[in-house]
Amino acid sequence: MSSYESQIIDFRSRKDKFFKTDPHNTPLTPTQVKKFKHLEYFPPNPELRLELELHDISDKEVVTMQTSDGMWRDYIKFGYFEFDVEGDKVQLYVYKSSEDDEYYFIPFKDATSGKETYGAGRYVEVEPLKNGKFLLDLNMAYNPYCAYNSNYSCPIPPRENWLKVPIRAGEKIFPGAVY
Question: What residues have CB less than 8 Å from 68, skipping those under 6 apart?
């Protein structure tokens, strides 16, 4: 097992511990915590850890995304990535809450949504690197908190981030997921 794969497995173990033992911050209900053993994941896939150039959008458009509770939130469409998955070229848009925000995220659905992964989609965060590129590690794709508990409000991935290909990386569906 590579050092990278070990880091992914260690992160997942810490996340499981957080879900099980942090009563104030876990997204799980008390009933779910009692039954919780661990989250399910695809095996780490180093090929889905990508350093990519961000294709900038000169006219930063404000996009309104519907949330899981029927509300709406504004995000700035910041740019997009293009990359290959199993020989298919895909494109995913990157969003920010505001121009000053340093948190970049990608809400997405793929061919595993509703089968192997949460039906409403998953999220993955991206990190700017010192070389001008961004790190997109799809092994870190995760379910939004609303997958575990309907008390959370989560943005629903916009249609432009619905992929026809499967992203078999990151977190799988949670048994009893809330839709």
Answer: 120, 144, 146, 150, 152, 153, 154, 155, 156
Whether 155 contacts 97, CB under 8 Å: no
Q: CA 43, CA 139: separation in Å to the nearest integer? A: 8
pLDDT tens-place string over residues 70-83: 999 999 999 999 99
Q: How confident is the model at residue 177 (pLDDT cuts 50, 70, 90)?
A: low
Beta bridge partners of 51: 135
Query: Within 13 Å, how many C-alpha atoms sit on residue 143's CB side?
Result: 33
Q: Is the dihedral of CA 165, 107, 170, 103 positive or negative?
A: positive
User: Which of 41, 5, 37, 2 lies closest to 20, judged by CA?
Assistant: 37
The pTM (predicted TM-score) of the whole model is: 0.93
Round to whole Å and give the CA distance between 177 and 143. 10
Q: What integer pLDDT is reported at residue 178 of this predicted model?
A: 65
